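Exam revision sheet. Question 4 asks you to relate a sequence to its structure. Input first:
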Amino acid sequence: METKEKEIIRLEKETVIPILKSKLITTLTGLIGDPSIRAEFLKFCKRVEYTIRAWYYLQFEDLMQLHCLFYPETGAENLEQQNLSPEEIDVLEQNFLKYLFQVIDKSNFKIANDEEIDVALSGQYLLNLPITVDDTKLDKEFLTRYFAKHHHENLPDFADKDAREV
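Answer key, structure tokens:
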């Protein structure tokens, strides 16, 4: 009898509760006996949700304003209209990355490291989307400058390429 070889993947503990928000709120509300306290708890839940949504909305607005400046089709025009110096453009680029990585972090996403990329590339998935980086289109200093100021663990190889490697 032929035994099937098992593929083992290490998973880290999740930082989220895998339950529907409405079910969690309903269950917790049901545990509160006093109707006035229950109503206050529901108000509190709404305030927390609105605060989180407001933060994401503001971050998204900032990201979109910065993205308009660097959009491939119209970004050069927009930058010309703003009449910005190269130093100011660099600051805006770094702010874009900072806001992007804040949203990524708050959304419980993380940058895939080389080991995770290798596992994804080696697996037999129904939908196989190969991960490749076109070095000719990669700004060789963009990510290097960002990660020099904002340290991240286990970055993929392409994250720290600079102009000398081309």
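Marking note for examiners. The first helix runs from residue 21 to 30.
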